[in-house]
């Protein structure tokens, strides 16, 4: 029989009670999993004070005002411990375990329990949002065409009474009765969105029309996930929501950045013309577990190269800047935004700005590898700097990033290590 992928890492944070208590090696991971539930170790409450432990370690994510607080352990258990599969390195096979036990979700009174549609819910950001909405006790319907999303990202919820997964492309209309729509569907990594630019434009434009049409018809609240790419190669720094951007309409990035700009235009047209209740988040560079190892973005590229001992590929001189936010912060912001009355766009990003060269060095240190740095030509229209002005998010949502980049990177490295060990990448 193969090895059970288990958590025995001694560097796990002190707060990681669940994984550190998993030292009964004779038990299958399924047994441990059900034991935790039986022993009541999954209990949590929604006190804001519980976000940080006494030594300032982050032990929970979310905001009390949006009732979105869940212990980090619960989320970690999902993405750092692939409890549903056993990899056998001798035969290179994976056995998927059938388990009828799910992580406990909040029991909400009917009037608080929402039916929530997440387009692109099997993707990197979408699946983290789905985890949180599920744990909060809502009914969640995911639609995804699995172009960049993966069934595995939400596999742990399949069969749960509050969850539905539907293979569907938002380019085609979709009808369903829901209260809220988080519209995330669109490839977001430059190599992916440039792979089929016509399809990317169609996804942004027709997909957004379809979802706004649905929101209008069923009177659902609609949240568009837009992007920092609407600012293009910015001439204003940092970028505030009032900045109109500097975008090349016929360049290689246009399919994505112009696509998202039209998606914003459509969103406000439906608001003004048809009274659709809208929210718009402009998301800056985001990273975390469940990024595709081969998605081509800098964080996954650098971590994978470092883990394999390969040279890290810097495009251009490496003095272009980006500001990286950890995915849990973003999910906090999206849920807060959905649940406020504010309709103008809001930047969600971490203002902690790095040159790509500095970032490469940070990854080399974190992974502790002998990898070196190599340079490749810069992609056309690559923005030279990017940093969010998050004053609006702070004032309107009471939101600002909590995760230091380094801490998020530690967790993401661990995730990719586990994926490698499990033969999944
Ligand atoms: O291996 C690599 C990959 C990327 N890079 C550079 O690292 C920087 C960041 O590149 P990424 O591909 O991660 O992301 P970009 O900032 O270009 O685009 C992103 O912007 C915000 C989001 O909406 C999207 O996720 C994505 O389009 C760029 O300057 C890029 O040229 C490298 O130096 N080496």
Automatic annotation (TrEMBL):
EC assignment: 4.1.1.35
Membrane topology recorded in Swiss-Prot or TrEMBL: Single-pass type II membrane protein
Pathway: Nucleotide-sugar biosynthesis; UDP-alpha-D-xylose biosynthesis; UDP-alpha-D-xylose from UDP-alpha-D-glucuronate: step 1/1
Location(s) in or outside the cell: Cytoplasm; Golgi apparatus, Golgi stack membrane
InterPro entries in UniProt: NAD(P)-bd_dom, NAD(P)-bd_dom_sf, UXS-like
Region span, Disordered: 1-25
Gene Ontology CC terms: Golgi cisterna membrane
One Gene Ontology molecular-function label: NAD+ binding
Catalytically driven reaction(s): UDP-alpha-D-glucuronate + H(+) = UDP-alpha-D-xylose + CO2
Membrane-crossing residue ranges in chain numbering: none
Key word rRNA-binding present: no
GO terms (BP aspect): D-xylose metabolic process; UDP-D-xylose biosynthetic process
Boundaries of every NAD(P)-binding domain copy: 117-412
Chief subcellular location: cytoplasm
Keywords: Cytoplasm, Decarboxylase, Golgi apparatus, Lyase, Membrane, NAD, Signal-anchor, Transmembrane, Transmembrane helix
Tagged with keyword ATP-binding: no
Top-level class of the enzyme under EC nomenclature: lyase
Swiss-Prot/TrEMBL cofactor(s): NAD(+)
Family to which the UniProt record says this protein belongs: Belongs to the NAD(P)-dependent epimerase/dehydratase family. UDP-glucuronic acid decarboxylase subfamily.
Identification of the protein by name: UDP-glucuronate decarboxylase
Source taxonomy: Eukaryota, Fungi, Fungi incertae sedis, Mucoromycota, Glomeromycotina
